[in-house]
Specification:
By secondary structure, this protein is α/β, with parallel strands linked by helices. It is built from 13 helices and 8 strands. The N and C termini lie close together (about 10 Å).
Length: about 280
């Protein structure tokens, strides 16, 4: 089976969105997709067949304080307004196509982090359920600037803390050949956690989460090494920006949003033959 693995990066995910839109427009099909944080929030549109949606609503609400602002952080507990961005927007303002999501056979997986254990939690959706929005919110809720999300008996936050690039997980689910989309350049290495004293104070109720966050750079860099090994074996194809993206994790600049998205599109266009050949190779196995 073929898989699509999407890391997060908040607004850097517009690079991923540009790639996904080109692949949708070119009719590239995958058996499954796993997304982390922005990779889940933006990647769900692949199963709902909605190219252009991610860029459209980000441009539309770039300066709306309900979408992303200090005001939202102070009044809702989330810098990306949880109610507005994850429920009102997909249900009323730029409607998520539930019917198409249901009809597409592709598996959709996402990753969150359990704040009590510091471990990754994986959730699969073959069809739409009401809690899809809850899980996307949980996967995308960055620590410190977001509230912990309660789903059932679990307390969850950003999946990137525990498993930033879940290629190994997807292989364990039976996806032998995978396209991995990164939002950092190929030579990027994550550095140790900064502002540890502040994080220890802010998250003192969740020591396992703090421990996972402190180990995150080791986990992330190990995942990059594993991806490189799999790429050398021909089992993985990686797409990433050539240089660090100029957009930050949080941005209100429509110019930078469009620029980042366009860079993703140009990356996909330049690699469309590689992508087709990689996917077609699996059909003869």
């Amino acid at each position: 089976m073929t898989g699509l693995v999407l890391e997060g990066g908040a607004m850097r995910g517009l690079f991923t969105a540009g790639i996904l839109d080109v692949m949708m427009e070119r009719g590239l099909h995958f058996d499954g997709l796993v997304g982390v944080s922005a990779g889940a929030c933006f990647g769900c549109n692949y199963k709902s067949h909605q190219p252009g949606r991610v860029l459209r609503y980000n441009l539309r609400f770039a300066h709306d304080p309900r979408y992303c602002s200090l005001w939202s952080l102070l009044t809702t507990g989330g810098i990306f307004g949880p109610r507005f961005a994850y429920y009102t927007l997909p249900q009323r303002l730029d409607v998520f196509d539930i019917r198409t999501f249901d009809r597409d056979p592709m598996q959709f997986h996402l990753v969150a982090t359990d704040v009590l254990t510091g471990e990754a939690v994986y959730q699969r959706f073959d069809h739409f359920r009401e809690d899809l929005y809850d899980w996307i919110l949980a996967s995308s809720s960055m620590p410190i600037v977001s509230r912990v999300v309660s789903i059932g008996e679990r307390l969850l936050i950003d999946g990137g803390i525990a498993d930033s690039i879940p290629l190994r997980y997807f292989q364990q689910q039976g996806f032998e050949r995978n396209v991995v989309i990164l939002t950092q350049p190929a030579d990027y290495q994550k550095t140790p956690l900064r502002y540890r004293w502040f994080i220890h104070h802010a998250l003192r109720r969740y020591p396992a989460l703090i421990a996972a966050w402190e180990r995150r750079h080791e986990m992330y860099n190990a995942e990059l090494r594993y991806i490189s090994e799999q790429q050398a074996l021909g089992q993985t194809l990686v797409l990433c920006p050539e240089r660090p993206l100029t957009i930050g994790r949080i941005s209100h600049s429509r110019r930078l949003m469009q620029q980042t998205y366009d860079l993703g599109r140009s990356t996909a266009e330049a690699n469309i033959t590689r992508l087709r050949n990689f996917l077609n190779d699996t059909s003869s196995q």
